[in-house]
Amino acid sequence: MGEAGWSPTKPCENASAVACRVLAVTGLVEHILGHVSARTGPDGLLVRGRGPAERGLAFTVVDDVRQVSLDGTGTVPSGWKTPSELPIHTEIMRSRPEVTAVVHAHPPAVVAASVADLPWLPLTGAYDIPAARLAHDGIPVWPRSALIRRRDLAEEMTATLGDRPVVVLRGHGLVAVGTGDPAHAVAEAVTRAVAVDSLARTMLAVTATGAPLRPVPDEDIDELPDLGPAFTVTSMWRHLTTRAEHEGPGTPLRA
Ligand SMILES: [Zn+2]
Which parts of the sequence belong to the Class II aldolase/adducin N-terminal domain (predicted)? Predict the structure, then answer.
């Protein structure tokens, strides 16, 4: 796994915990549902679970993030539990060795657009280049709304994800993945989730006017540059984490 470019000895509980706060402050998760994971090695991951004093994603502390193996076992404190949908994370990491972070969220706009069976088209161009590029290259939709708490369901969902960075779960939410150093991968997965949420909001707004959903022409897509990770991930992550710090509850990240 060394060639993947990340260090299995450098855990990133902080990034995973902060990511949960970011998802809450941006409205991509509500209340106590949603989770983020970061790979620690070929067979291990850090995942945001729930302790006996669970207060919801907005109030995530570093201790909510614990290391388990891909089969869900590990030495964890009594009362702390992995998410019931842990198979989302473990199955993707099993089938995609390059994936080092997974975000699962229930953004209301994504859920509404998926239930309406709206097509995930690049409706806008320079307005949101990451969203346009994601949609142009294809956002798959897993048609089932089941709670993904079994491996067979996670395998189905992972097959629909394929080699793409995001998958929409109809009537449920989305899954986004990141690659490379796990702390960067968490940021990358979150920014991808934010892009899909942005697109969903646009889809719903356009549909509400009664106008048809039409993709921007390929010639305009061709004029959208790849802005690179320093802009689309690092700068965006700095913005999102600063927002979480200023707009979030202000409770300490370390209990
Ligand atoms: Zn879920």
Answer: 14-204
